[in-house]
Amino acid sequence: MVLTGLIKKLGHQLAEIRERALQSILSKVEHNLICYADLIQERLLFLRLLEWFNFPSVPMKEEVLNLLNRLVKYPPAVQHLVDLGAVEFLSNLRSNVEPNLQAEIDGILDGLFILPSEVPALCSASYHTDQTELSKQPEILTGYFPQDKSNFQQMEVPPRPMVNQIVKCLKFSTFPWLPLTTTDRHVLSSNESSLRSSNHTLIWNTCELLKDVIMQDFPAEIFLQRPKIVQSLLSLLKLAFGGDGKHRLALQSVSCLQQLCTYLRNRLNFHRDPGFFSNKQDTVSQNSSLSYCHEARGTHHSQNPSPGSSSPRPSVVGRTGQRLRGDGQDWDAGSSSGSSSHAHINSRISVHSPLDMGHVDLPELETEDTLELQFQQLSLPQFCVSILESAVPLLRTGSRQMIIRVLELLAEDMILIGEALSADIWDDSSLFAIDMKEKLLLVLGSLGETMGYHKSSISLEQPEVMVVHHRMAFISISLFAVRLLQMLLPVEKASEFLPEPMSAALFLLSLDMPISLEYPNIHEAVVAYLEQLNSENYSIYKRTAEAVYSIECTCNFLSDVGKEGEKNLLELVELADQALRSFSYHQHFPLIKEIICICSKIWKSAQASPLLQGESQKVFLHMLSHPLPEVRVETYHCCLEIIKECLGVYNVTKPVSSLCNGIHFLLHPKVLYEISAFGIQEPKSEVCQMT
């Protein structure tokens, strides 16, 4: 059966025949009986592959999308798909398939929007041959399916390795494309030019208009599909370090971008489940599908509405009714009274603003080239990373208000990043993923430097207000940085990718006790990353953590010993053992006497358990052989004082048995051996004299 026959069967009404035809094509490709040079010349194949999803029964969806994903790497295939309207078709199909298939569709769409710099090899390795071999073996040109020789030679390219362009790291790429009416384009164009003005007042007012009107009237994805306004807002962030009130414009830009992130999140939720998502709190909102359906039924009979009855705000999707809003709702609020609705709209448009245009005086705009615009649009991951690149440097400003506002923007942006990118980005070798990785690593490096800057700026020489500013900035930025790492970078890949400034910042963060106490989960994550990054720093952290814990045990031991009433002796012995490990740091000598008194008390009691006696003896022997000479001297001195107290002349009238109980802990063979073998030989003369 020739290839054309198999392709025709892809459109058969019976699902079984369609499946067998597809399996046959895939099998022939796998066994090199067909190469991609055969497939990409068949325009009908692409039509049948797209129509595959229009049948009531759609088997082998993943195989069809995977085949399209492989074919879209070749310019002839891209041209066929674009001519057939595949961009719009796949954008609409995306919301109707499972999440794992959405990534395949995103890869196809990305391939359609990438201008190839060179033509990929069309055939598998078995088809790579030079021109001389072709001339000697004309029968190869016929192939499994006969072709015209001239066409085949035109398609030939020098053999080279094929580049895998499948993007695996995308959770969400682009929103379905929305066309704009001329009036809508004028609105956006006016605001774009206003944001590029040198008049600060005009820029300020334009930002206010964007927040209060434009972003609520347009679906949020419009600003990614036509990104000039977003690019202007990102440029305004650079004014944060300027004087003469320029930083106020940067704050306005931050506010606009934060609101756009919120609306994009709403639109993302809406596209996932249009029937369920609503950000209104009432039971049935004015913008709900119920009110819209009621309105639609009321006007269904009118096929040619008069100008007076139509909405004065044209639709962004080419409809004559009300258009999509940026708040995640399908339609603008419907009014029970047409006159009141018109009055509300007219009153809003009458405000002096870039929207204040006459219907006759609109300047002419060029006809839109949809394909070119789609090449220029920002995907959701690109938008999110652009905000990170532009906003993170602002965290080093001296303005507390700026840092707070930027962190609020970054918090919204981080939510979108989690919805758009997966941790698979570090294993993804596509050009898109490589570009995203490079930008993310620069952002992480900048975050690490910023954390180090605020940490090093905390000193007693500075005024208290500046100390508080830098401390709060360090804590807040650290929390954001660690949460971003947890979202994007698996712990096991930290040593391979994490920049040195962030590694140094995580080390500082691991030693910050207030943060470890207030945010234990964040602290655990930091330690996990540190363990993978730098064994030396991790060792320092471990020793520091042990010393801190030992000092804490010291305080708890001294506190419990001083309390009246019954004491848990085993717990006290455990605390004493831990407390001795940090003695070289705190050198609190009263601790030695308290521990020896506890040991004496335990051995004095006839009811003491062997376990308790054994544990207390280990602690006492540790003190007798402690590496610090001062500890050994104090231990022998305290023992001598106890012996004098028990066997002193003033105790001559007391029974001998009761007197000896207090020094029972010294009479054990292990203790006597330690004293006779090492105490007498002690280089310190104080110890020798006491033994």
From TrEMBL:
Q: Name one GO cellular component term.
A: ciliary basal body
Q: Give me the ranges of the annotated region Disordered.
A: 296-344
Instruction: Tell me the Gene Ontology biological-process terms attached to this UniProt entry.
Output: centriole replication; centriole-centriole cohesion; ciliary basal body organization
Q: Which residues form the signal peptide?
A: none
Tell me which domain of life the UniProt entry assigns to the organism this sequence originates from.
Answer: Eukaryota
Question: Which residue windows does the record flag with biased composition (Low complexity)?
Answer: 305-319, 333-344
Q: Which Pfam families match?
A: RTTN_N
Residue ranges occupied by any Rotatin N-terminal domain in the UniProt entry: 16-112
Q: Could you identify this protein by its name?
A: Rotatin
